[in-house]
Amino acid sequence: MPPRKLYFENVRVGDELPAMAKSPIDRVQLSRYAAATNDYNPLNIDELQAKAIGMPSVVSPSTLGLGFLGQLVTDWARGGQVKKAAARFTRMLWPGDTLVCKGRVSDRWGEGGRYHVELDVWAENQKGELVVRGNVTLKVFYSFEDETRFRTGQPPLIVNVPRESILVAPPAPAASPAGKVSAAKGKVSAKDSRKPEKKPAKKAAKPAKAPKAKAKKPAKAAKPAKRKK
Predict the structure, then answer these.
(1) Digit-coded pLDDT (tens) for 97-138
(2) Cβ-Cβ contacts under 8 Å for 82 (sequence gap 6 or more)
(3) Candidates 3.50.50.60, 3.40.50.880, 3.40.50.1820, 3.10.129.10; correct CATH number of 1-25+60-167?
């Protein structure tokens, strides 16, 4: 069984809100919404005027989808206070559309006795198309004890909790000294493995042989010149 009220200590980043399916939008609902908001836009309630400007039928005000998201949040955040809300409309709503509202916890933090939970919420039509998307920031009590202290005029329960956004990865744990040594060894071995293998040095070339000197034949002695008679 979920707690009767929503407390900070029971919320975790990534928790999903129970999906809420609404009945198909009809023209009676559009008329009631116009009366409740005192907004009688003819494009929302006058079929003839809507078709006169080229629309297939009356169109639902986009704020109706926003109201559905508000119902999703208040049904889930029992006892929480809405501190901030923003939305973006991405597609028009038509009579006959069936919306399914969804949401999840995207962030949580606490500081100085104040605790906040941030939600991402959105609505899809029967085709699975995104119709409206928004985010809501809630202020909640840390626990039942914290709420009791507030009701009795006592100081709040102070538990400082850093932001735990779903978009931010948790810091990596510090490596142990042994792990650092092994990692360093791994780096060295990896570095060594990348070194190209040294090719064996080529053998030194043999010294060229000196050409053999040919012995010269002794020159012939010159013949004595003949005497004239």
Answers:
(1) 999 999 999 999 999 999 999 999 999 999 999 999 999 999
(2) 73, 74, 136, 137, 138
(3) 3.10.129.10
CA distance 163 to 173: 18
| Positions of CATH 3.10.129.10 in the chain | 1-25+60-167
pLDDT tens digits, one per residue of 127-177: 999 999 999 999 999 999 999 999 999 999 999 999 988 765 555 555 555
Dihedral-angle region of residue 96 (phi above 0 means left; psi in -120 to 50 means alpha; beta otherwise)? left
User: Crossing angle of helices 62-76/27-37, nearest 10°?
Assistant: 80
Using CA atoms, how far apart are residues 165 and 182, in angstroms rounded to an integer?
33
- Whether the full predicted model's pTM is greater than 0.70, yes or no, is no
